[in-house]
Amino acid sequence: MEQKKPTTLKKQIEDRLKEEFKDAIIDLKEVVGGCGTSFTLDMTWEGFSDMSRLARHRRVNGAIKEEMPKVHALQMVCTVTLRTPTEQSKVAAESPAT
After folding, report:
1. Residue 3 covered by a domain
2. Scanning 25, 33, 48, 60, which has the fewest C-beta atoms within 10 Å of its C-beta?
3. How far is residue 95 CA from its own chain's centroid?
4. CATH code for the domain of 75
């Protein structure tokens, strides 16, 4: 009988987000260092179009509420449209190395 590999917290969060936000573009990175498990999330989904930034963050937090007690910090950017290459470069330069 083959044993299942344990699922990482990052994988659990990604799977939950993909299930909740169909057709979303999800870029979840684990931030190494610090005092706990931290992540950065850059997510694009058309369903965010009528939501404020706070409502978007609440929706994401609600989707991963079961995983959140294991997370020390989550920095997120939730957008409706894809970023331009210039914006992507700026975000990448400002993001902590993973």
Report:
1. no
2. 33
3. 13
4. 3.30.300.90
Number of structural domains in the chain: 1
Q: Is 53 among the domain residues?
A: yes
Q: Can you give the pTM of this predicted structure? A: 0.74
Give the whole-angstrom CA distance, residue 61 versus residue 76.
10
Give pLDDT tens digits for 41-91: 999 999 999 999 999 999 999 999 999 999 999 999 999 986 666 766 665
What is the Cα–Cα distance from 20 to 14, expressed in whole angstroms? 10
- Structural domain boundaries, residue 78: 24-94
Strands 73-79 and 38-44: parallel
Give the number of residues written for the chain. Answer: 98
